Amino acid sequence: MTASRPTTRPRKEPSSAKPGRKAAARRSGAGHRTDLLEAMLRIRRFEERCVELYSAARIRGFVHLYIGEEAVAVGVTGALEPGDAVVSTYREHGHALARGLTPESVMAEMHGKATGCSGGRGGSMHLFDASRRFYGGSAIVAGGLPLAAGLALADLMRGLPGVTCCFFGDGAFAEGEFHETANLAALWNLPLLLVCENNLYAMGTALAREHAQTDLAMRAASYGMPAWAVDGMDVEAVEQAARRAVGGIRAGAGPHFLELRTYRFRAHSMYDPDRYRDKAEVERWKSRDPIARLTERMRDGGELDDEALARTEQRLAEEIDHAVTAAERAPEEPVGDLLRHVTSAPYGEVSRP
Amino acid sequence: MSTGTRARGTTYREAMREALREALRSDERVFLMGEDVGRYGGCFGVSLGLLEEFGPDRVRDTPLSESAFVGAGIGAALAGMRPVVEIMTVNFSLLALDQILNNAATLLHMSGGQLPVPLVIRMTTGAGRQLAAQHSHSLESFYAHIPGIRVLAPATLEDARHVLAPALADPDPVVIFEHGSLYNAAGELDPAAGPVELDRAAVRRPGTDVSLITYGGSLPKALAAADELAADGVDAEVVDLRSLRPLDGATIAASVARTHRAVVVDEAWRTGSLAAEVSARIAEESFYELDAPVERVCSAEVPIPYARQLEEAALPQTADIVAAAHRAVD
Amino acid sequence: MAEFTMPSLGADMDEGTLVEWLVAPGDPVRRGDPVAVVETAKSTIEVECFESGAMGRRLVEPGTTVPVGTPLALIEPAAEPREEPGEAGRPREEPRVPSASRRAAPAPAAGAGAGPAPAPAAGPAPPRAPAASGAPEHGAAEAGPLVRHLAERSGVDLGSVHGTGPAGRVTRADIERASAGAAPRSPRVRATPLARRLAAELGVGLSEVTGSGRDAAVRARDVSGAAARRSAAHPPQRPATAAARASRPPGEEAPGMRQAIARLMTRANRDIPHYYLSTTVDMTAATDWLHDHNRRAPLPERLLPAALLLRAAAVAAREVPELNGFWADDRFTPGEGVHLGVAVSLRGGGLVAPVLHRADTLDPHALMAALKDLVTRARTGRLRGSEVSGATITVTNLGDQGVETVFGVIHPPQVALVGFGRVVDRPWAVGGLLGVRPVVTVTLSADHRATDGAVGARYLSAVDRLLQKPEKL
């Protein structure tokens, strides 16, 4: 009863790949740009509120803000289907929201409430949603990469069409786990999309101060996989590149690597004085704000007016207000349940602290 | 191809292989992956012949990337497979410790119960073969320290044969330690033996005067010590912990309540060892049963040396166990 | 009017120092603008405000350290709220979104309300919390665990030590000074936990047992051996005899104590016409209750049979007040309250009888604790004067030394002495059937000048009755 399964997906020409219906429907045009803009604005406004709540000590832990990088999460996840898997980092509010986790469940998680997407046990750095195949934030740099390879391997072995998308940063590129995973994925032709968010700083260490060769896409290509560098401040460019990569993966061409050149407008975390970056550099990147860029493009094309934008902002503000109110009112996970979810079934002495 | 259903001569290695074969046959979600598990047949020969039977997809050779393939096992488990990942030895497992500790053991909890990780990791452990400092570790206590994983140390033929099925049925990560000195252990497999009760220690020899509490590769030494003690008129009970996490405190306490004396035998270094944990449990739960201080027989606190006489001196030996038991009893 | 407060930038930040204002009063500020520089334990950080408007009154001057959540300044609403929908997405130019629910939500100030500035904000910023805010107020007895341990080991009463440390804390040196003269406690007998437990259960004194274990530790079999020998060998003894234990070299006992006992007992035997009564009490209920209690109770709360016996003796003395008091000037004076003298034999020989004051009001736990304390201190020579005087009736319990029946000599001017023997298993008829039961022999030595036998009999039957309902003791 030995099952003989294909080790690799049959290779197809990318042109024959069938993009998802939804993706096709919103592939271009004003309606789609409106969606992209709203998705980016949701992340931005959500995180701005996080800053305020953090300063007031309503939310705690390490909080890493994505502000400035929204185009990456929105563009890449726009190219994914519901059956695909996403593995994220500790800077993952954007990925989670773009993947469809509700602001309510993420905000509740940051408040440590029972209604949070991880039941209050994860916090900002560990957002999960199994129903959306969102395999969460990992606070160990590069720790999610091997796991993503395994998700891709399982889909491959089970003959499922899913693509696993793994986000990580330029810091993770220096870790052994990236290189082990890239090699393994290429060797086994895994349906894995490696998305490197190159924001130029590994916490406080600039790219050139930690990489002998700073052309990350070129280095990734040496593992024998297609690899491109993309302007991570342009959501449409990101989405286009991601579609191309996902199409290739679905067609059986194995793992693809995207280096998305982006920038975080805020410090590494809340408690970071940001001494390692020149203020002029920050201002320069802010002038390339992906939200402003798309807004202007849409205005120029007559796809957006003040009134529509105000309506969107109003709706998002209400959505986030609601998320905060709901999170504040949500029940806390009882301390009596402290040891829940350590193992699937309580057994033996594990309940002993 | 053997069936393993009637009493017959076998070895620990063959029993483990039979368990893998059974698992691969009975559940198509199961696959074996690790360094040299396929064409080589496993560094210790455990998976010999399985590639030929099940093919390269399910008996999967990996690059020398412990972190990547253990992490891939975790990911595959999340996505519906039942991987058995072999790490060649515990010494190399340190390169995957991040994945085991930070992903396998934590995902269920930090996802609020959404993501169980039904993964089995097997690895060889222990010293005694003159392999010197980097290939002689007993790091079971590192793993037993971690909530969220189950740690097993099969020490008998029956346990080797019957530990894998319940481990694979567990929805959470299980780490199985196979002591290198046990692979050649031969004997008749008890045909009546059923699946290992994962939470339970086993009393391998009942006795009334002193409890020798041990696991894994030290079990044969403890049983030999019990024989010698019997000749001296000391009736030793031998407890095989078998499950290192969770520890079966009830069996330990019951044994100490019978004998009032305990000797804990552990091939790991004494400081911070499982022997330390077992001793602490006895102090917590069986203090008023003790009629002598708990004795520990552990490895000397030294990187395990190569030279034969030095290695022997560093490791717990039967004579050390006998001496410790006499100290407790006399 | 909104408050700009000291932000929390991490769970480990409790306070921050305002270093510099980046905007002047009256300057316009927008949500997200950095308005001040704050120094924390970790770094110096520009902090932003979360309201748009004009910088209002400053509440805190640079250089001041304040707790997180403290208002630093007020932000006044902008003169003309601007609608800037067109600027969405442009960095640093946030559209002002009017939102009812936002306004309704309380201002996110940690530990402070949203309303008008709370009291602390109105005045100068609260000063940095003094490091010693948790300093003790209860003075001399304040001492750390090490000091407590040292005090206990060297027999020093912490309450009597003058602390020379900060805030009157007792220091190690204080203990060493105080203990310089104090007699060291006799060393604890080395015994295994099981042996200790058995000794308590069997009523065997560990110090009487020769240890066969490592470093002469007493082991379980030594205890059971001693218990077996004892039950075979020991004849009844009178307290005075017990006090002069033949096994002790006479030199170990303080000669003064021997002479005092001699004088007192001679007087008692000469002046007091004793009568003696004895009864045997079924201890099944009492031992069952103790066993059950001890199984559930944590170690410090476990009880010995003596606690029940003493308690019964004290309550019975209250019930039969004719036996609780003094014979002086040819007449009996009842005691005010039951103050139970407890004969304690000393290791070096000799006897003292410290007093459990108002013993009839102490429950078995309190009695047990008081007894332990008294016995320990009696044996280390640290009883206070008040603790060896004023007994209204005395109990001698030689059960733990293997004695079955005690006929004691009354301690003048008291008029009665109660003796308890060992709890032993004996054939016992209950309801016409013979069974083996734990029993104890209770004796009463009473002064015939003060009472007659009938009174003594009432006392003994009260003791018996009380011991049948241990749960009510």
Describe the structure.
The complex is a heterotrimer of chains A (353), B (330) and C (473). Chain A has one domain (34-201, 209-329): Rossmann fold (3-Layer(aba) Sandwich). Chain A contains 13 helices and 7 strands. Chain A has helices at 21-25, 30-55, 70-77, 93-98, 103-110, 144-157, 176-187, 207-210, 216-221, 235-250, 279-286, 290-300, 306-329; strands spanning 85-87, 164-169, 192-198, 201-202, 205-206, 227-231, 256-261. Chain A is globular. In chain A, 53% of the residues are buried. Chain B has 2 domains: 9-188, Rossmann fold (3-Layer(aba) Sandwich), CATH 3.40.50.970; 202-329, Rossmann fold (3-Layer(aba) Sandwich), CATH 3.40.50. Chain B has helices at residues 12-26, 50-54, 66-78, 90-93, 97-104, 107-110, 140-144, 157-162, 164-169, 219-231, 249-259, 274-285, 308-314, 318-329; strands at 9-11, 30-34, 59-61, 82-89, 120-125, 150-152, 174-179, 186-188, 202-205, 210-214, 236-240, 243-245, 262-269, 295-299. Chain B has 330 residues and is of the alpha/beta class. In chain B, helix 10 (219-231) packs across helix 14 (318-329). Chain C is an alpha+beta fold and 473 residues long. Chain C has 4 domains: 2-122, OB fold (Dihydrolipoamide Acetyltransferase, E2P) (Beta Barrel), CATH 2.40.50.100; 139-179, E3-binding domain (Dihydrolipoamide Transferase), CATH 4.10.320.10; 188-233, Dihydrolipoamide Transferase, CATH 4.10.320.10; 238-472, 2-Layer Sandwich (Chloramphenicol Acetyltransferase), CATH 3.30.559.10. In chain C, 28% of the residues lie in helices and 21% in strands. In chain C, strand 10 (325-328) and strand 11 form a beta hairpin. The radius of gyration of chain C is 37 Å and the shape is elongated. Mean pLDDT of chain C is 77; it is low at 81-140 and 235-251. The interface between A and B is large, with 58 and 56 residues.
